[in-house]
Amino acid sequence: MRNGWDENSVYMIITAGLSKKKPDHQHGDMLGIQAYANGNQILPNYQVRYPLEDYQLFKNSFVKNVALVDNIPQANNWIGNEGGSGFGKWGKIPIPKTLSWINNTTSDFFAGTHDGYDSLGVKYFREIVFIKDGFWIVRDNFISESTHE
Hints:
The protein is mostly beta strands. It has one domain (about 10-145): Distorted Sandwich (Beta-galactosidase, Chain A, domain 5), CATH 2.70.98. Helix content is about 5%, strand content about 40%. Strand 7 and strand 8 form a beta hairpin.
């Protein structure tokens, strides 16, 4: 989602895809967002450094711009590599699905879901409206028969 291509443009990136070749190597940020405005990143996606001990934390949901259920990260079952460099992969990561993508000259609309909390009985979807004058509305929707945090 963007309103131009120069350094003063406003844009948002949504993580709404899953790698076909190495899905388990992705970050735990399904439907995560990054935003740029006023010449700066205002919602960053924090970088990871493989040799540091906090690698798994920075690769997972707790420092991404995602919605969580019951404080459970999106990616689970970390499998470190045999060399011990810190690099590894996830045993489970949510599978996303784009529900709607509408783009026009004055606004954009995105809606997407993922299956990350289906096992808890929680259906989740995120909607984003981008008014190209320079602001977004992000709405997270949770549907469940029981109470969650």
